Amino acid sequence: MKKKLVYILSFVEKSLPVEWVIENLDRTKYDLSFIMMGKDNTPFTQFLQQQNVPYDVVPYDGKADLLPTFYKIFRILRRTKPHVVHVHLFYAGIIALPAAWLAGVRHRIYTRHYSSYHHDYFKKAVVLDRIINFFSTRLVAISQVVENVLVTREHVAPEKITRIPHGFDFSYFVRRPEEIEAVRIKHGIPTGQHPVVGVISRYTHLKGIQYTIEAFAALRQRYPQAHLVLSNASGDYKEVLSSKLHALPPGSFTEILFEEDVRALYALFDVFVHVPIAPDCEAFGQTYVEALAMRVPSVFTLSGIAREFVEDRVNARVVPYHDAAAISHAIQDLLQNVTLRERVTAQGYEAVTQRFGMPVMIERLDAAYQASSKARI
Prior knowledge:
The chain is built from 15 helices and 13 strands. By secondary structure, the protein is of the alpha/beta class. It starts with a strand and ends with a helix. Keywords: Membrane, Transmembrane, Transmembrane helix.
């Protein structure tokens, strides 16, 4: 008999990683459905329709919707009676996990997609994290960093945690010239300005974009035609970053609010930079894997999953935290040293394809779902 498995997500409009899970999960074992907190008619719900995966959409626009959302999810779960719920993201965790408990769902899995963010920036939210931990029967840590936070800072029993890093369908990461040119034209990225330095990151303090902008300003002294592209260009640090950007020469940078075709965007970059400011800023850091999968020479600080496999001059250039001068030097190193550039791109691709393929992730998820179905919790 198939196990009834319900995924519950909050505020997801597009997610390649979850789409890849849907495509690779053995549907002969699972009767899969989704509850989406947020909007309907998104790229993700359209994908669910294409895959014939049933789903419910529960609107949530703020605190006033908390109790109605809780009740709607509770009623859905009482009706469907799943064996396992797998909850992703904070708002889904704080609302759907207690609802699942009250609905009598005995096996409640929560994937933790952030590490120390609440401890460092929103300490009051740590109480809510502890509530999520309490109502979960199994916590999925996507990296060693997340597991360390759960155990050492939130005192979760290690036996309650399963480590499952994100998986990637590496057949997606190919260069298609027509897509690349379409994205370039769409965002007005000039053809005559090189090298192109790329950033794909929300505008928050912890991502270290401020140091990348300073490094880029220094880089232009050597490469006056260099161009900076910043995607996902919104967030609570936008005012500070905008002031730094507007100190650059006009036309030397492009901001992109969102680009769905990430592989084409990466392919436009001569060098990619991702430099979070501390080891535990990133819970995982999907962009580390994506950049290396697209064979883009990269400059990194070590945070999240990068701490587990990235090595300086082996598969990327690694720089200290908070160090614009080191970032600028590393970019120039990759631009000028052909041997280094070819080595890190080849070995970077090899590293991520060996570690983060979908079969490994699906095997671990399947083990977690089957163990939950058998356990008496």
